[in-house]
Design a protein that fits this description.
This protein has helices at residues 3-9, 36-45, 74-80, 91-104, 125-137, 152-160, 171-174, 188-198, 221-233, 245-255, 264-273, 301-305, 309-320, 331-344, 347-366, 384-387, 399-411, 452-467; strands at 119-122, 144-147, 164-167, 205-208, 238-241, 277-281, 292-296, 379-383, 416-418, 425-427, 432-434, 440-444, 475-479, 491-494. Helix content is 39%, strand content 12%. The protein binds pyridoxal-5'-phosphate (PLP).
């Protein structure tokens, strides 16, 4: 029999349970070896705040964030050498303009010579948020910005400008219905109710794709369309927090009716056709270690409603970051971004990326660990309340912090508490904690960094902690309980 005929009888290469990665290692870094004893000593010194634990001592996986932790491709490293460090209008700026138009739509980057700025490069996501919300805050009105789930810095930047952030999580997100593939959706009913009461106080509606705070869950095209149509009816601009736009597009292609045969690139274009602007941290789906941007649709509702803002934004950018043609980035950063944006929307990259995250989640579920399902695109989330169910760990004992300290100290893997401590608030007057709706530990998977055995080793470590969860110590906050964004700064004691 010819091999071609045999090929028809045998399982295809794509149907194998273990698929080869769509890349190979180009260069590697060996890790330090150290012991649990040494790590525990250092953890104690840094007050069990894992953000302050030296990354060089991590022997396992660093899941603290998928932001800026990308391994770049050899094409990106090559592009770095082509960086043009001219102060004005470096070569990469024009390539970035072409790339942004190609990926998101022509309307998001005007010709610089037109004198109608609508594309603003910043050094990461939060300065874009600061720029946008500080402009809106100047209106002096009592404003509310609703979202399907604001990220913590987004929420802080909104607050800082005396605007109220509001999260309208979907009903599916709060239920245990693991069949829903789009738990990141905005709650349409709550949005309509809000608009009935406060439509004149809403300068824009924000959709975070994927919904990082809401378990890293994607948002459906249907939901984007619905929100867009409601926003249009009320003449309110719609924005994306677009950090993980490519991962979101992958989920639409995979699970939403009518998108199976569409390319990721087409789906991305359609998603962005519904918005009047977006902020983005390129440290996620830009496949780079630094970069961000704020883009406004030429002729869109935002520019119509706030015609003075684009010029004000440009002034803000010049004062705070740099000339608009490089923003907060060096010419070489811009070159790696142009190349990264080309890779991020490739099907083979995304298939592997999302499969890897899912495999980590599945392994944890196999071990009986309570995880949020279905798994999101960049991270898997452990439900802390369910993890400690039946033990003496009370909400104010911050079990999530205890878990992350134990995982890092005992097994060398770093994860991040995003729950009662990170998103909670302490009122020193009443001495009471206000708990948020969610209590998670997040394992954010850096892009192109780890192999399956790294992830399996993490799952095994979590299993050991789960089986001994009643032994995990309670947490006392030694410093920073009442500070804003306290999880970045606090110190703990374990009892
Ligand atoms: C959804 C979302 N928005 C905004 C940001 C802020 O971006 P940056 O860290 O680049 O400031 C992040 C960062 O993780 C994020 O996940």
């Amino acid at each position: 029999m010819t091999l071609a005929k045999i090929a028809k009888k045998l399982p295809s290469e794509d149907s194998l349970h273990t698929l080869p990665r769509p890349y190979f290692n180009h260069s590697v870094e060996f890790k330090e070896r150290n012991s649990a004893e040494k790590r525990l000593e250092v953890l104690k010194e840094v007050g069990y705040n894992v953000f302050f634990f030296p990354a060089g001592m991590i022997t396992g996986c660093d899941f603290l964030s998928d932001s800026g932790t990308t391994t770049m491709t050899n094409k990106q490293w090559a592009a770095l050498h082509l960086g043009d460090e001219s102060y004005g209008s470096n070569k990469g700026y024009f390539l970035l303009m072409e790339k942004i138009r190609e990926v998101f739509g022509n309307e998001f980057f005007n010709e610089p010579a037109l004198g109608k700025p609508n594309a603003f490069i910043f050094h990461q996501g939060r300065p874009c948020e600061d720029a946008l919300f500080s402009m809106l805050g100047k209106t002096g009105k009592k404003l509310i910005i609703p979202s399907n789930g604001h990220f913590d810095t987004t929420e802080a930047n909104i607050h800082a400008n005396k605007i109220k952030p509001l999260n309208l999580f979907s009903e599916e997100f709060k239920s245990d219905d693991s069949e829903s593939h789009f738990k990141g959706n905005m709650n349409i009913k709550k949005l309509k109710d809000l608009l009935k009461k406060s439509k004149n106080n809403i300068p824009l509606i924000y959709i975070t794709i994927t919904n990082n705070t809401g378990g890293g869950q994607p948002v459906s095209m249907e939901n984007i369309k619905q929100v867009s149509s409601i926003a249009k009816d009320h003449k309110i601009p719609l924005f994306f927090d677009a950090c993980r736009f490519a991962e979101n597009a992958w989920f639409i292609k995979k699970f939403e009716k009518g998108y199976k045969s569409k390319s990721i690139s087409k789906i991305v274009k359609e998603m962005f056709s519904y918005v009047d602007g977006f902020t983005i941290s390129f440290k996620k789906d830009g496949l780079v270690n630094m970069g961000g941007g704020l883009f406004l649709r030429a002729g869109g509702l935002f520019i119509k409603n706030y015609p003075e803002i684009p010029d004000a934004l440009m002034n803000h950018q010049i004062i705070k970051e740099g000339h608009p043609t490089y923003g907060g980035l060096s010419g070489r950063d811009i070159m790696t971004l142009v190349t990264g944006l080309g890779t991020i929307i490739q099907q083979k990259y995304l298939d592997h990326r999302i499969r890897q995250v899912r495999e980590l989640g599945e392994k944890l579920v196999d071990f009986g660990i309570p995880m949020v399902t279905p798994f999101g695109g960049h991270a898997v989330y452990m439900d802390v309340n369910k993890f400690f169910e039946g033990t003496n760990m009370k909400p104010n004992d911050f079990g999530g912090i205890s878990f992350t300290a134990a995982l890092l100290g005992l097994y060398g893997h770093r994860a991040c508490e995003l729950g009662y401590f990170a998103f909670g608030q302490y009122d020193p007057k009443t001495k009471k904690e206000k708990h948020p709706e969610v209590n998670f530990v997040r394992f954010a998977v850096p892009r192109l960094r780890y192999e399956r055995q790294d992830l399996e080793s993490t799952a095994e470590a979590v299993k050991n902690l789960y089986e001994n969860r009643e032994l995990l110590p309670k947490v006392k906050v030694a410093y920073g309980r009442d500070l804003p964004l306290r999880h970045f700064k606090a110190r703990f004691e374990l009892h």
